[in-house]
Amino acid sequence: MNLALWIATALLAAVSLTGGITKTLVPKEKLAAINGGEWTGHAGVGFVKTIGVLELLAAVGLILPALLDIAPFMVPVTALCWVLLMVGAMIIHRRLGQVKLMMVNLGYVALAAFIAWGRFSLEPFTG
């Protein structure tokens, strides 16, 4: 189970890192022109950048606490925060009628919930 949790965590961290880099470095106008990025056309630059920074922090929070054995309880806490972020994303995509993207977000919710459940109860990090 530990291996499955690490694989899921690495996958979610990669998604988070990619999204965070994109939202913090790519201009909002370019994001709005990309399929799935239309929501940025309705949001302020600061909001988009803030979401990007939160995603970057999530990538860090999913991996580093366990690797460095410094506050490893932050891994499942970060996974729960990711669930909340993706619920917000699902709401935005629903408002824009982007059902496929809602399903992608739902997949991320399931992955993050698995990580949180696994690290809180099945295979918690012990120090």
UniProtKB/TrEMBL annotation:
The chain crosses the membrane at residues 70-92, 104-122. Its main location: membrane. Pfam families: DoxX_2. It is found in: Membrane. GO terms for cellular component: membrane. It is a multi-pass membrane protein. It comes from the Bacteria. Keywords: Membrane, Transmembrane, Transmembrane helix. The keyword Ribonucleoprotein does not apply. This is DoxX family protein.
